[in-house]
Specification:
123 residues, alpha+beta, three-stranded antiparallel beta sheet, 46% helix, 28% strand, elongated
């Protein structure tokens, strides 16, 4: 009986390690970008909770609330003026749409687009 060798070759192992290492490196580079996006979404949610069901809410009050939350969360990717506020009947829609780049290697960067919105019922 002939026995066949089983297992992975050193070349296969190296190729696998390079692929896994590349994905881990990309994940490490994108982690801060997504953490800031989560902070922006959290700040918009806190503004929504603060002004929810407040019939006297104005756009200026929402801008001030966004500015405060961005200061508390130390958000500097976008400014409070970059958040689009639109009125839809008895509610406001806060929308933060922006792009962020994360440098990868040399002159190669990753572009990530975010578009978060919350609705504030101001009735």
């Amino acid at each position: 009986m002939r026995s066949r060798q089983k297992g992975i070759t050193i070349m296969g192992l190296l190729i696998g390690l390079v692929l896994v290492g590349g994905w881990v490196y990309i994940g490490i580079r994108l982690t801060p970008v997504y953490l800031e996006a989560m902070a922006i979404k959290s700040a918009l949610g806190k503004v929504r909770d603060e002004f929810q069901s407040n019939p006297g809410t104005t756009e200026q009050m929402l801008r001030l609330g966004i500015s405060r939350q961005f200061d508390v969360e130390s958000i500097d990717v976008i400014g409070f003026r970059d958040v689009e506020i639109t009125r839809d009947g008895g509610s406001f829609i806060l929308r933060a749409a922006y792009e962020e780049t994360a440098p990868l290697v040399a002159n190669i960067s990753l572009l990530v687009e975010f578009d978060d919105s919350v609705e504030v019922q101001a009735r």
